[in-house]
Design brief:
Elements: H1 5-37, H2 83-94, H3 96-100, H4 115-118, H5 120-123, H6 134-137, E1 140-142, E2 147-149, H7 151-160, H8 173-185, H9 212-222, H10 224-227, E3 234-235, E4 242-244, H11 262-272, H12 286-296, H13 331-336, H14 340-347
Antiparallel strand pairs: 1-2, 3-4
The structure holds heme C (HEC) (2 copies).
Domain Cytochrome c: 84-217, 210-300
Region (Disordered): 308-333
Pfam families: Cytochrom_C, SoxA-TsdA_cyt-c
Length: 348
């Protein structure tokens, strides 16, 4: 019995040694962590510039490329009786500003953007806001006008809103040429059909409102190099158009434009921006696309009243940013989400 305390005393040096060793270890680990996070290391590069690691893919195709719509071979245009018209149409869509912009050589009726800035490669890119369904789905009744719209009215819609400008006369050489080009592009699409990859990518909805503060960080990381900190882009040296188009401010699309709706903007950038991204190799995540859309669309741009829009307000899309609405949700929620409750209420 009285021998018990003895071994404990003998163990004391060993226990002290062990404790000391632990203290030193914790100290080293702590110091390493501290140095790691104390800003002494170089900042992380933007995600887009990191090489993709095979075990951690940065991006995944947004849609299976099989059966994707493809534009007809451009060389085959020569066979068409109206080849000159079609070619002029394509030229106008690619270089709109040169012909119809603020210094346009045909007319001065638009803000300096090219149709192609948003309808990539003259409207031929899958999920790049292409014109594959223009021939097959117009004329159609649209909620915005409450009327049947033919393709010329739809084109003029983009002139008045996306190009914050004026309309072209239906019988003008320019209108006839653009329509001829779109009809040629959609020649293989059956009447009434929308081919795979038509228009824009439809993003899954977030379960929260899009966050323009997060969006600003994404903008600064992924967009400023081309569209600039002030969002005004870069004008070509000869002022015939933009090398990098503006995203907000007086030279950008107005508040009546499709891109002013969050789902259109997010869908466009998710599959196409930063420039070089494609639906097969996207760079942004869904969340980043929604948040950067919120940032850009929360900044100033031309306001323009279209008093005849939406004669039936119940037809407004979930993300139409201006009231009145046929439901109880606020303008703020219609603009930035969350959209699920709005959709659920509309279903009832
Ligand atoms: C600032 C961006 C922007 C510019 C510039 C722009 N558009 Fe659009 N356009 C859109 C958006 C967004 C849509 C709607 C896409 C959707 O809802 O899927 C659209 C839709 C269209 C459609 C309907 C396509 C369909 O299948 O329903 C046509 C046609 C069109 N634009 C023609 C033009 C023409 C011609 C020009 C140049 C004069 C032009 N757009 C310039 C953004 C733009
Ligand atoms: C490497 C340069 C580059 C980067 C980075 C870039 N863009 Fe663009 N962006 C372009 C170019 C070029 C166009 C016009 C495309 C064309 O005409 O072919 C464009 C067009 C656009 C348009 C449609 C035209 C307009 O002015 O409204 C939007 C919207 C857009 N970009 C958003 C973004 C967003 C958001 C980011 C960041 C996530 C981004 N871009 C990053 C080069 C870039």
């Amino acid at each position: 019995m009285n021998q018990r305390p003895k071994p404990l005393v003998e163990l004391l040096p060993l226990v002290t040694g062990l404790l000391l060793a632990i203290c030193v270890l914790v100290g080293i680990v702590g110091l390493t962590l501290y140095l790691d996070f104390s800003g002494e290391r170089p900042q992380h590069e933007p995600l887009a510039e990191l090489p993709a690691k095979p075990d951690m893919p940065i991006s995944k195709a947004l849609m299976d490329p099989a059966g994707m719509w493809q534009a007809p071979d451009w060389a085959s245009v020569e066979k068409e009786p109206n080849a000159d018209e079609i070619k002029y149409g394509r030229e106008l869509i690619a270089n709109t500003s040169e012909y119809l912009g603020p210094n346009g050589k045909v007319k001065k009726i638009s803000n300096g953007l090219n149709c192609q800035n948003c309808h990539l490669q003259a409207g031929t890119v899958p999920l790049g806001n292409n014109y594959s369904a223009a021939k097959s789905t117009y004329p159609k009744v649209r909620g915005r006008s409450g009327n049947s719209e033919d393709i010329r009215l739809r084109i003029n819609g983009c002139f008045q809103r996306s190009l914050n400008g004026e309309v072209l006369a239906n019988d003008s050489k320019e209108m006839i040429a653009m329509v001829a080009y779109m009809n040629w592009l959609g020649q293989d699409v059956a009447q009434g059909e929308k081919p795979k990859g038509a228009g824009l990518y439809e993003l899954p909805l977030l379960d929260r409102a899009a966050d323009y503060i997060k969006g600003k960080t994404i903008y600064e990381r992924q967009c400023v190099t081309c569209h600039m900190v002030d969002g005004q882009g870069v004008m070509k040296a000869d002022s015939t158009g933009y090398t990098y188009p503006p995203l907000w401010g007086e030279h950008s699309y107005n508040q009546g434009a499709g891109l002013f709706r969050m789902s259109r903007f997010a869908g466009y950038v998710r599959a196409n921006m930063p420039f070089g991204a494609t639906y097969e190799n996207p760079i942004l995540t869904d969340e980043e696309a929604w948040d950067v859309a919120a940032y850009v669309n929360s900044l100033d741009r031309p306001a323009r009243d279209f008093p005849n829009d939406w004669p039936d307000i119940s037809k407004k899309p979930m993300d139409h940013p201006f009231g009145p609405y046929s439901d109880e949700f606020s303008e703020e929620q219609h603009k930035f989400g969350p959209y699920q409750p709005i959709k659920a209420a509309a279903k009832k």
